[in-house]
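SAMPLE LOG
Freezer: B-3
Tube label: C17
Construct: single chain, 196 aa
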Amino acid sequence: RRRPWRRLVVWRVVLAAVGAAISHFVGLEAAIGNAYRTACSAGLWCKHVKDAAGLLPDDDRWRLDQYSRWVLRESDVDMRFVFVNGTSGKTIEQFAVDTVEALGIGGKTREERGVLFLYDLAGKRARIEVGYGLEGYFPDAFVNYLIHDHARELFASRDISLALRLLLRMLHTRIRQAVLGAQFDPRVLEMARSAR
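STRUCTURE (predicted):
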């Protein structure tokens, strides 16, 4: 004789066990995320964001670092953001090159696929360095737009974190377009300039 209630009891036990396991792993993941966020706030483990100028709130530094890590996993592009309070008497160009070498930006990816966004808070200057493996992704016209137009408005805005996230998304979108074989269209820059 069949007892359907036994199956129901078995399924409830199985579902309860699966639910408990999922909640345990979700809780564990949240705990790891909180520990990483705390360490990043203290200046540890934030590999992709170095904020010696104290420009970003801790939570925003952590988010920017997380997004940059995701881009590295997805596209094999090492994107770094460095904020300093002076370049120690060097030109911004030389300081950027020295920073790329010191941090090994793009060194662990294939073909030196690294991007550095450097901002000197004291001199109100910005610089983007692009590794050799990404020169086709980021033509000079695009980089010049980011430095001369976007970065100027980025730091003039009241919400620097939002402006940095927009910059990161612009870089990420361009990477995705290039991976799909799309050539850079300079008309995009004209439209962006005219939209202001």
